[in-house]
Amino acid sequence: HENNILASRAEKEVYQRIKEIAPEAVYHERPKMIFIEKQKLKKTKSKILVVSGGTSDIPVAEEAVVTAEALGNSVERLYDVGVAGIHRLLGNLDKLNDAEVIITVAGMEGALASVVGGLVDKPVIAVPTSVGYGANFGGVSALLTMLNSCASGIGVVNIDNGFGAAYLASTINLQIEKARKEG
């Protein structure tokens, strides 16, 4: 059998060249990813939830979504629910609680991961983004906030690493799925 192929950080021109030799290739514009599905994977029953602080975080959030789905996970999105409008996050507690693993994606000061980590009792994978202004320092301020979170159960990946967050979330989610099947 053939393996699926996922390429990240791919410009549209690269996709067009790949499409010539692999017509089944699909381009995901926001995260700049190419997916070639050679083998259909059965989706998990357990869910990964990808949460973004603001709309400018969506390209990195979508990188996480596309990656997690390509790895066979059921994924749900919850976007633009950052701490500047915390009522939007609190109005979606059911979605937070329904997920097995949560990926938070936020720039600026990166407080979203700490808030989510304080609300749930499940793994939270924090992705700082390079978006922001002022003293954002290209995502370093968000990274440091996430690393210094006092909320338990938070793991942090590097700046703009939606792929890495999704791979880790998938590993956790697939283990949960396996444990449920076994008993």
From TrEMBL:
> What Gene Ontology molecular function terms does this protein carry?
hydrolase activity
The record's InterPro entries line, in alphabetical order, gives:
P2CMN_synthase_LarB (IPR039476), PurE_dom (IPR000031)
Q: Which residues form a coiled coil?
A: none
Please give the Pfam families that the UniProt record associates with this protein.
AIRC
Stretches assigned to the PurE domain: 46-178
Query: Which GO BP annotation is one of this protein's?
Result: 'de novo' IMP biosynthetic process
Its protein name is PurE domain-containing protein
Q: Which organism is it from?
A: Halanaerobium congolense
Taxonomic lineage is:
Bacteria, Bacillati, Bacillota, Clostridia, Halanaerobiales
